[in-house]
Every structure is written in C-alpha cells, then in structure tokens.
Write a structure and sequence with these properties.
53% of the residues lie in helices and 19% in strands. The chain is elongated and about 80 Å long.
Length: 233
C-alpha cells in the first residue's frame, strides 16, 4: 500500500494534467472544457488507485483480485461521455477532437494512478502539442487557415451561387455554408438574411479587392470576416 502523500500526489498531478488539456479545449470554445477534463482525469486516477489498493486483503488468497478489471471499465465509460460532445448537423460533424481529448485524458489518469508518471506526463505534453502545435502545420499544408465570412444581404434566388462564383474565382475553398434568416423586412418587401461561409484562403490573398467584388453582388449589404471590427461597405 502506498502512503497517503503518494495518493494525494497522484490525484493532484492528474488534475494538473487534465487541466492543461482542458484549458486548450476551453480556449477553442469546445463543449467540454477545463472542468470536464480535470474531472475525467481525476476520476480515472481514483478508479485506478481503488482497483490497485482498495481491495487488498480480499479475493482469492487475499491478493485483492485483478486490479486491471475495474480500471478497464474507464475506457468504455469515457466512450459514452465523449459521444455526448459529438454534434452532427446534416453532413457536418463537430466535437470529434474534444471526444478524443476526453478519451486520452482517461488514459492519462489511469497511467498516473498506476504510478506510471513518465507515460502520463509525456502523453500530456504530446496531446498539447497535437492540439496547439499541429494546427499551424495543418494550416500550412492546406495553404491557409479556416476563416468565417459573414455576409448580410437581401434574399433572392441565385445569391449564394453568385457569391460562390466570386469565392471560386479567388481560389477560396468553401468548407461550409449556413444561412440564418434575421426575419427583418427591408425595402420593397425583401428579407434580410445572414450567410456564413466557412472558407480556406489561398496562400496569396488580397482582401480589399475581394470585398469589392463581394459588395458588387446584387443584394449584398455588407460583408465581414469574423473577429474584424471594421465592416466592409
């Protein structure tokens, strides 16, 4: 049986490891953030500690049974928790990365609870690099990061096609299109709608000339990149 200090050390260390991963997910506004990842890692560590030391003196020959049997249930249990973070809207699926981070946090907790510190700490560092560092590499390989173009316009037939034509002419790849009706009637009975284009920009891109083309489309009122303070009129 390990000392009380060792038990506390493993629990605190697992909470720190889960918190590091959780803070990255929190910064990305994921459905599971700091608290969720801490609780998953901490709970996994506690279950491993219970499975290893909580049944000593019991079982056949007082050997405490099989420590791996209880800990193995963490893997399947976290699978259900991770599934709750996955959202599907039409053909779009979100939350897979967060589900994977919850799953791997369970593994980190089991490793630390077992006293396998090097494995748990090294995995935490690799996970953080994967979530943060590889985004830069991924954007470079795909010739630019994803950006969200928000266009406010009067509803009419063929509008999305006209805007899409301009995007294609500027070598901009469209990943997703969402149309939100603002239920506002403007002049001549036209409805004002908001179209959100999730796009990937080419390596060489001229923003000013692009917005001039977008604003020249019949019905477009204004356009803006998400996060920009100045609208393009």
């Amino acid at each position: 049986m390990i000392s009380n200090g060792e038990v506390i050390l493993r629990l605190v260390l697992s909470a720190l490891a889960g918190g590091i991963v959780g803070m990255e997910r929190e910064a990305n506004h994921s459905s599971a953030g700091l608290r969720t990842h801490i609780l998953v890692t901490l709970g996994s560590t506690l279950i491993m500690l219970i499975s290893m030391y909580g049944f000593q003196g019991l079982g056949a020959n007082n050997n405490g049974g099989e420590p791996a049997r209880l800990a193995a249930q963490v893997v399947s249990g976290i699978g259900f928790l991770g599934a709750g973070t996955i959202l599907r809207t039409g053909n779009n699926i979100r939350g897979l990365t967060t589900a994977a981070s919850i799953w791997v946090c369970g593994g980190i907790g089991l490793a630390i609870g077992n006293g396998y510190y090097i494995g748990g700490i090294a995995t935490t560092i690799i996970v953080l690099f994967t979530l943060r560092g590889l985004v830069f590499i991924q954007n470079k390989l795909s010739k630019g990061p994803n950006k969200l173009l928000i266009v406010h316009c009067k509803e009419r037939a063929g509008l999305i096609g006209d805007i899409g034509h301009i995007l294609g002419k500027n070598n901009i790849i469209i990943n997703e299109i969402k149309v939100n009706s603002e239920d506002n009637i403007v002049e001549n009975g036209d409805y004002l709608i908001e179209i959100r284009f999730t796009v990937k920009l080419p390596s060489k891109f001229l923003s000013r000339s692009f917005f001039d083309e977008i604003l020249s489309v019949n019905g477009v009122e204004n356009a803006i990149w998400e996060g920009d303070l100045e609208k393009a009129f």
